[in-house]
Predict the 3D structure of the following.
Amino acid sequence: MDPQAPLPTRRLGPGTALIQAQAWQAAAVTLASPALGVMTDLTQVKAATTVARTSLTQAEQIMIHLGVRLLFVVADMPAVEGLITSTDLRGDRQMRLVHERGVHYDELTVGDVMTPLTRIDAIDFAELRHASVANVVATIQALGRNHLLVVDEDGRRLRGVISRSQVERQLGVPIAITEVATTFAELGQMLS
């Protein structure tokens, strides 16, 4: 074909329809499958982000719009300050802040309830490459978390996210977890 020639065109007729994007279907896995099969690789999928000053209501709308349950909280891209999950948006912590501060729920921001980076456990990508889905499930259960973060070997860059709900969908079975306190403050919140 001549590189300067225009491409041939056609007229559209009645009944022409849009091709609909297919919902992303995660491949089925077993406990023996490689762990990388359940990780959302942030080199392939854009991370969902927000800023600390975003209201909780806005954060919830972002999650709904993007179809995610976790947002990375950033100040200056790509530096991460923490994360907020759909679980963080509702519950005792927010109601306690509303009561303590004498404010409305709509006045709370992501920065008020996010989990700061310093309180987040992560798995090294090098370890995950040699692990199975069973190892991932055991880690989710041991930490009592809905999300696991994966970092590159240097520990300075978030490489991926593993979501308990995604693993459950791919396995076809629920994963039972019990929330685990990692600090005395969390223990106090769990007991109150």
The radius of gyration is 21 Å. The longest helix spans residues 56-66. The mean pLDDT is 86. The beta strands are 40-41, 49-50, 70-74, 80-85, 115-116, 122-124, 147-151, 158-163.
